[in-house]
Amino acid sequence: MKSKILLVGPINDQGIGGRFEEMRVWVRFLEEEQFNVSVFSMFNSRFGLENAKMVESVHLVFPNFWSWFPGLRNLILRVWSSRFFRNQRDNFYASKKWLVFARSFNHIILFITHQSREIKIFDSSLPVAVSIRFTGTVHDFSILKNHHKKLSKAARNYVIHAPGLFYGFENSIPKVYIDQTTLAEKLLLHLKIDANLKVFAMIGLFMEVKQMEEVINVFAKLPNLNLILFGTGELQTSYQNQIDTLGLSNVKIAGFVAPDQIALLYAQIDALIINSSEETGPMTGIEAMASGKLILSRPVGAMRERLRDPEMIFDKAEDLIEKIKRYSSLPPEKIIEYKTTLRTRYLENYSNLQVKKQIKNMLEGVSDT
What we know:
By secondary structure, this protein is of the alpha/beta class.
């Protein structure tokens, strides 16, 4: 019988973002390894992930209404989302309906932050193996200090992108280190590596944590170089107003690029800038490495371990300006060398083959504990 795996994580109302794409990677690899995969989110299960069965809370709470009256589904969702059911939603992961559903799986993998309500699943005595794949920076390790192997008779473990994210923290929960990879690997590896270093990019949701406004100001001081912002989000109007106010012709917003078009995005750029105040990956860093693009990053997420070069790490805007100028002045063969090194590092450590093997080994290892 195929082992049944449930991936659990909040899906936003647009079905986009780093968590969603990382869940897609895991679903793809697990299905290729013949696991029976389902995905659960409190809401927004309408966004499919490969061939996985998509389930959300309302399906379990009102199964008959949902099945028998498809024309009333929007109404049922509004009722379930209302304040009248707030307590039921808050306590959903202790409900009988959830527990019956969860017990039907061999392993549950949570794609969450330490603040997500879904951490209650890990904390419970549910007799099913549960792993947390942290998708956000852990700011308060005191929340995790209460975790120990005896939470349940079934196995518990953490799945972490890189050791640096948990530096100095210890408890009795086993830790497995598995970084990210990209499903666009084949297309990205076919992009030609060249000596160009004129077009820089930032990629992601337009939100405060990405700190794109700082980099827009940086490129106001670098008029001979270009910056493209790829993404969407609540700060897009603010970014555009900033660009217009500064009168910048070398900075533009290109909008959101669908995952199946990601190779076209990287074909347009020469380097990626990661200026986030916090990350766990990010996925864009892995994509840029596979594409053979130069990367300049703050010391966030797994980027320090990935780049292994302090010259590609910066701490403040002035430092970023200096590094951009230095790299842009390098001879062509040196620029190609840096880019090639990053692609080689991707192939050695973060390829589909490597990460798929690590995921399979993790599941087999947990099942043996």
